[in-house]
Specification:
homodimer; Tetracycline Repressor, domain 2; disordered C terminus; mainly alpha; DNA-binding
DNA sequence: GCCTGCCGACTGAACGCTCGCTCATACACC
DNA sequence: GGTGTATGAGCGAGCGTTCAGTCGGCAGGC
C-alpha cells in the first residue's frame, strides 16, 4: 500500500496521538494488516483484536490511532482508492506517450485492475458498511477516477484521434472502460476460465475500436 | 418475490416443519421480510429478531424453517437469482419475437435490471457472506443466466443476424451485456445523474451495434 | 356429541458467547 | 516529575441460537 502522491482523506480521521509522523507510520501498519484480513475474511468477520495483532500492536494502541472500527474501514477504503487513483494516473500518463493511445490506456488500466483484484472486490463489498459521511467521501474518489477517463477521452476527440462523438456517448464510454476493469476483478472466477488477461484486454479493446469505426449516423435503438 | 417457474435450490435447506406447503408459504414471508431489511441495513446489521418480527413470526418459529442466519441469506440470494433468471428468460423470449432482436433483448434485460437494482446490489455485497457450499450454488445460477445470453447471441450469429464472429468474442459480448445491466444498478448513484434508463439503453445499444458494423478484419490489440 | 391423547407448529425468556471499546497501569524519554 | 505512548485485562451490550412449555386441531373410541 504505497498511497503517496495522491490526496487522501485520512487526515480527516481523528487520533489521540500527537506525533504526526508516528500516526502515519502506525496507520500504515494498521491499514496493511486490515486490508489483508478484510480481503481474506471480510470486514464483519474480522475482529479488531486480529487487526491489532497482525499490525503488531495491542488493541489499546490500535484505538489510539483510530476512533472506531468503521473509521478503520474508511482508512482502508481511502488507501485502496488512493492506490487506484495513483495507478490510473500513471497508466494514463504512460499511455499518452505511446502510439496507439486509446488501446494503451485501456491496456495499462486493465493491468492495474488485474493487480488490484482483491482490493476492487473489497471496495464493492464493504463500501456500504461505511458511515454515510465516509461513504460519500469514498464515492468522491470514484467520481474523480472516472473523471480522469472523461478528460482523457475528450482530449482524444479534440485531437481528432477519436471521431467527434457527442458528450454523453464519450462519457459513457469512459464509464464502460472503468467498469470493464472492475468486471475483470468481480467476475474473475468466471472470466478467467475462458480468457487470460491479455485476451480479455485485446477483445475488449477490439470491441471499443470497432464501435468507433462503425459509428456514423446509425440511429440508435432500432434494427439488429 | 415471485420465484415460480424457475428452479431454485431452496429445497436443499433443511427445515423442522413437515408440511411442505406451509414451509413454502412461511419461507416466502421470511425471505420477503429479509430482503427488505437486508437491502435497507445489510445482512450483518440485521438481527434475526428483526426478520422474525417483519415476517410476523416469533424467533422460535423462524428457526423452525431455517437452520441458521446464513442459510437464510442463502434463501434470499437464491430467491433473487431465481427472480432474475425468470426475468431474463422472459425478456429473451419476448425479444426473440420482435423485429430488432438484439436491441430488444438488451432493452428488455436492462429494464429487468432497472427494476431489480436493490437486489443486484445486495447480491454483489453479500454473496461473500455465504458459506462456501451455498456460495458455489449461487454462482452456478449466475453462470446459468450468462449462459442464456451466450446461447441467444450464438443463435443470432447462426441465423446471420449478427456477423459470424469467433466464439470468445461472442461470449465476451454476452458477459458485457450482463454486466452492463449490473452496472446500471451498481453505479446508478453516478449514472443516473447523467442518463435516464432509456438514454442508457440506447447509448449502450448503439455501442454494441456499431461495434458489429465496424467489425471486419481489424487485427485486435493494435492501433488507435 | 364428547372426551382423550397425540401431533406439530408456535412462543419467547434465557443462555452463552463474541467483540468493540475503555481505563488503570506501566514505561520511555526529556 | 511531567508528558506522551503502549498495554491488555475487563466491561457490558448485543447477538444467534435453543428449548421447555403452550395450544389448536384432528383421529378414534365410546
Amino acid at each position: 500500500m504505497a498511497s503517496n502522491s495522491v490526496q487522501t482523506a485520512a487526515h480527516k480521521v481523528p487520533t489521540q496521538v500527537k506525533d504526526h509522523k508516528l500516526v502515519q507510520l502506525r496507520r500504515r501498519q494498521i491499514v496493511d494488516a486490515a486490508v489483508g484480513l478484510f480481503v481474506q475474511k471480510g470486514f464483519h468477520r474480522t475482529t479488531t483484536r486480529e487487526i491489532a495483532k497482525a499490525a503488531n500492536l495491542s488493541i489499546g494502541s490500535l484505538y489510539e490511532y483510530v476512533t472506531s472500527k468503521e473509521d478503520l474501514l474508511f482508512l482502508v477504503c481511502d488507501a485502496i482508492h488512493g492506490e487506484m487513483e495513483a495507478g490510473v494516473t500513471q497508466a494514463l500518463a504512460r499511455a499518452h506517450t505511446a502510439a496507439g493511445v486509446l488501446a494503451e490506456m485501456i491496456r495499462e488500466y486493465f493491468l492495474v485492475c488485474d493487480c488490484m483484484t482483491d482490493h476492487i472486490v473489497l471496495i464493492y463489498q464493504e463500501t456500504q458498511s461505511l458511515p454515510r459521511k465516509w461513504r460519500t467521501e469514498v464515492l468522491k474518489t470514484e467520481v474523480r477516477v472516472t473523471g480522469r477517463f472523461f478528460e482523457a477521452l475528450h482530449r482524444l476527440c479534440d485531437e481528432g484521434v477519436l471521431p467527434p462523438l457527442e458528450k454523453p456517448a464519450v462519457d459513457l464510454m469512459a464509464h464502460n472502460i472503468v467498469v470493464w476493469g472492475h468486471m475483470w476483478a468481480l467476475r474473475r472466477w468466471f472470466l478467467a476460465r475462458q480468457y487470460s488477461i491479455d485476451q480479455y484486454i485485446s477483445l475488449q479493446t477490439a470491441l471499443i475500436l470497432n464501435s468507433f469505426n462503425g459509428a456514423s449516423s446509425s440511429a440508435p435503438g432500432s434494427q439488429a
